[in-house]
Amino acid sequence: MGTRAARTLGLPFVVMALVAALLVPAGAVTALAAPAGAATAVAPCGKGNATGATDTGVTDKSISIATIQDIGGLRPGLFANEQKSMEGFVAYCNSLGGINGRTLKLVKYDSALLDAYAQYQKACDQFAIVGETVIFDDVGVKPTTACGVPSVAGISQPARTSSDLVFNPSPNPGDKVALGRYQWLKKQFPGVQKSAAMLYASTATTQNSGEKQIAGMEQLGYNFTYRGVTEVNVVNWGPFVNALRQHQTSYLTMVADPVNWAGLQREMVAQGVKVKVTDATSTVYSPAYIQQAGSAAEGTLIALTTAPFEDAKKLPEMANYMKWVKKMGGTPTSIGVEVWSAGLLFATAVQSLGSNVTRKGLITALKGIHQWDGNGIQAPADPGNKVPTGCFLYLQVKNGKFVRLYPKQGFACSKTIATVPSAS
After folding, report:
1. Cβ distance 386 to 7 under 8 Å?
2. What average pLDDT does the segment 87-114 reach?
3. Using an 8 Å Cβ cutoff, are 370 and 38 in contact?
4. Secondary structure element (H or E) that encloses residue 395, with its range
5. What is the Cα–Cα distance from 57 to 151, expressed in whole angstroms?
């Protein structure tokens, strides 16, 4: 318990932008006017006449599904909005008639950071797990393998991703890193790779995430002159900022939540330390980060593999997601978009099965889906083959707001994928 507790304290720091499919010529970084062009629009929810108690959790009239999130425990509310995203998807789908006429029944489990194993065991009673967002999800591999319950996860760490029962709308395999965004940074900001810095908390999960990214970037010539291992709750950022100054850091990234990003950047301003590129991910894509960091956030780059909320006017699915999560009392988040996409992916696979909805059939259907963008709300992906995407977009903080930097619309894509030592 002591080791697990120490690891758990750092959970929020691990949420990295997840990645999915390869769709353009190798080595090139190409802007796509639309998120994929290859992915077919889906509308899996609707009326029908499906019948039969065909598997665990399936009846003539309903399909019972589980969702698991870290909400209680040491980081209260960590993935509360992601649970609301799943609630919203189920309510939306049922409003259209369910899937082939069967309504969805959602059973919610709180993994509370330290209680994931027990919740995965309980989820075995349902047909499938959908939209899970659990940091220490590796403990779920054993119980779910034993009972055979499949999962379409919102996010998952490499060990769970590798399970034959787990699929993601945006896969995150432990031995692959998409390099397209780092290629673009080198071109856009000459010399950025000369003195790179990575900070992560002293937990196995965050260190694996950080070292995986470093291993990939080094293949492009990024020179990591500084690795900073922080406490989970940093009280004094001074020594870390001083190290950035001593190493004349040109590129800075960190596996962290908005609170720590804001704290680091405020101290950088206080000490007058500037870097060429500060490269953050979807964890800071929230008003809370802007509020906490204030003017210190100015110029920060944020890499996304989901469409920005500002695109809702031209992306009906994004507008739909935002509408329904708010109906449930939640707030839209980038990871919440992944959860919504997971719901769509699950429903699409189930719809294809007609009346004969079985766990085996669901897994087979998911393995056959190789072009996926959630109706435009995420970068194009290959869930069936669990391949990371080379697609990305960048926002930048300007005048206290998130502004699209690159590309002007859609995503930029590359086939350049690095193979690195497995983080699983």
Report:
1. no
2. 97
3. no
4. strand 391-398
5. 14
pLDDT in tens, 339-358: 999 999 999 999 999 999 99
Reported as a single tens digit per residue, the pLDDT across 208-239 is: 889 999 999 999 999 999 999 998 789 999 99
- Kindly give the pairing relationship between strand 166-167 and strand 151-152: parallel
Separation of alpha carbons 73 and 112, rounded Å: 5
Sign of CA dihedral 303, 224, 138, 141: positive
- Written as one string, the DSSP assignment of 141-165 is HHHHHHHT--EE-SS--HHHHTSTT
User: Which strands make up the sheet holding 128-130, listed edge to edge?
Assistant: 103-110, 62-69, 128-130, 151-152, 166-167
Do 407 and 307 touch, CB atoms closer than 8 A?
A: no
Q: Which residues pair with 102 in a beta bridge?
A: 99
| Residue written as token pair 């699983």 | 424
Measured CA to CA in angstroms, residue 108 lies from 25, 56, 66, 158 at distances of 42, 17, 6, 23
Banded pLDDT at 17 (limits 50, 70, 90): very low
Contact 92, 133 (CB under 8 A): no
Q: How many C-beta atoms lie closer than 10 Å to residue 39's C-beta?
A: 22
Burial class (CB in 10 A: 0-12, 13-18, 19+), 399: exposed
For 82-122, the DSSP string reads HHHHHHHHHHHHHHTTSBTTBEEEEEEEE-TTT-HHHHHHH
Q: 68 - beta bridge partners? A: 109
Partners of residue 255 on adjacent β-strands: 200
Q: In this structure, are residues 314 and 299 in contact, taking their beta carbons and an 8 Å threshold? A: no
Q: Which of 199, 154, 172 lies closest to 13, judged by CA? A: 199
Beta bridge partners of residue 133, listed in sequence order: 69
Give the three-state DSSP class for 419. Answer: strand
Contacts for 233-240: CB closer than 8 Å, 24+ residues apart: 233/9, 234/260, 234/263, 234/264, 237/263, 237/264, 237/266, 237/267, 238/267, 238/271, 240/199, 240/264, 240/267
- Tokens at residue 1, please? 């318990």
